[in-house]
């Protein structure tokens, strides 16, 4: 048995007696006067058993204190006394031995108490262990619960994911079996479409994109797939794109719209469609989208509406110009009369002069409108644009400040165009003056570059002008530039950024009108702060006919017209009219054989039927009417062009004239401009 | 000082032109259309006729042509407001070819008109 810590507190007589009896227990004895030391020792050590002589003074109090666990630990107690203390029955681990104690009983009691004590300790340990096990069990249980919850969540998620995957694969399988085509076939099919097509999943990610879409976005397929709008467009465009996606998803029906998007820094006008994809087995929210680049169409529409606006204004202006000028004349004449009526009144003079000035400005305005709407006369001739530029250069140089430099670059040998020199001069002056105005604050460089340019049939420009050879003139400045928002409006009539007294806003619309009539084109590009560039295209013509430089095809007989200019047989019995018509036609470059007598005219034609490119005849003549003359001439030469003209009520209509073989019938008084145009059209 | 015949359908222009030319010392007679004007011209008293191109009943061109026959010595100045319904420029040119000594677009500079009258009467 291991050493049990047993303390004894007794008088010397008992100590000697008990030491022998309890020798096996190795008791440490304290003397009675050592009570204080004993109590001090109890603070640091824990005896298993304390044997206490109750006869000692203070022993009962000490027993009480030990029982009450005054010192952290309660030892077992063996009390020795003559009488059994009354409290002993209540106290656990406490024994009593009567004085004088028999040594057997005394040891037995002590050993029993030690055993009880030891068992109690073991029990305590067991209890403690049990408690510990129990608490570990609780933790484990909790842990287990949490793990179990996590697993449940994961299982649920996995299950869902699995379901989704199964769904997706079902969809794929479904599609595959439905169409019995593989993905490559679909890809090829979509890539063959000229229209951009894509598919987005419910989260807005691209899951499919054809070549045209990639081309439009300037991205490879793998730079599109799996991404959302935000990764592809700039923020504002992406937001709009997703908005319309949502709209299509919400309403469950196709959305179509026109929208401008910036892609790689270029603004595109697009026609967009978004179609919610509804298929059995496919979750909702998938969108098929298509995009068609309509930038060119938009530009054409804008140009068309611009031309239409100009034409409408021209027609309107032309319609009112006559009345307007009459009224204006009446106003101006009356103002003059007022001045004459009160020559001494400076105030009247001043006021009428002001009114007159306004009247003259109005007159100029009407004249300008008539110019751009082609209501005034045009003289087309073959000319070299370099000559126009040279002429204009002198005038521009004289009229703009010296801090603006002007340079001309002629990058072609000749720049022949068929044009009205006055109008082209006006175009060049107008653009040069605008350029000078844009540089008036800080000075700068004005360049005029002339070159030839071939517009190929498939080219972008071919949308606006006929393919073929052109002369291109670029007039550029490095002035303040035109803000982007007003750029589309610069050709509008009356649009101006200049103060009222500096410009009417007709200049560029006149230029536009002139080029339109010359079958040309004007384009403008501009960057604020950097400058503006106007590019003009005019159809280029080969060197003038009849000057020996044209390659003539050997076996073809030169036509009469190429030899001498077009020859016209003019027939009118009215001498004055005959002479006037002849003069006008000669002035237009025709060779005219004028004949007063229709019978004589028929004789001349009979003699040399191939000499005349055209017969122009009046209807109402003595001897032979125009109609009869026409019939006779076309009998001789069935393909001979004849144009008839007549007064209003002479019983001749167009159907009759055409039946007789005439190409056209005109009414008197003749509109010579129209007539000349018709003649040219016929002969060319 | 000349004896002038004006054919002009726009009354406002007629009156103002009459006053203007009279204040310059000329004698002025008015007609509101070409046929009326031709009838007046038949008297032979006029030195010069100022004829508008667009007039009702008989237009300026027809009138000029008629006068060239009936009054070959009568000088003619053609005037017009211009306009787009027909190609007006050509009409004035036509008038000139028919024998009008000069053509003016309205509004006409009074000085120019007066000096043209002076040079031809």
Structural features, described:
Chain A has helices at 12-21, 35-44, 59-67, 103-179, 183-192, 211-217, 235-251, 295-341, 346-372, 385-399, 421-438, 507-517, 560-564, 575-587, 598-607, 626-636, 654-659, 672-683, and strands at 6-9, 27-30, 49-53, 76-81, 94-98, 196-200, 206-209, 255-263, 266-276, 287-293, 381-384, 404-410, 416-419, 444-455, 468-477, 521-527, 531-539, 567-571, 591-595, 614-618, 642-646, 664-667. Chain A is built from 18 helices and 22 strands. Chain A folds into 5 domains: 4-176, Rossmann fold; 193-293, PAS domain (Beta-Lactamase, 2-Layer Sandwich); 299-372, Helix Hairpins (Orthogonal Bundle); 381-539, Heat Shock Protein 90 (2-Layer Sandwich), CATH 3.30.565.10; 567-683, Response regulator (Rossmann fold, 3-Layer(aba) Sandwich), CATH 3.40.50. Chain A has 684 residues and is an alpha/beta fold. In chain A, α8 packs antiparallel against α9 (346-372), α10 crosses α11 (421-438) and α15 runs parallel beside α16. Chain B is α/β, with parallel strands linked by helices and 121 residues long. Chain B has a 5-stranded parallel sheet with strand order 2-1-3-4-5, sandwiched between helices. The longest helix of chain B is centred in the first third of the chain and has 13 residues, at 11-23. The A-B interface holds A 314-315, 317-319, 321-334, 336-337, 340, 359, 363, 366, 370, 373, 375-377, 574, 576-577, 579-581, 583-584, 669-674 and B 10, 12-13, 15-17, 19-20, 23, 54, 59, 61-62, 65, 68, 80-91, 93-94, 97-99, 105-108, 110.
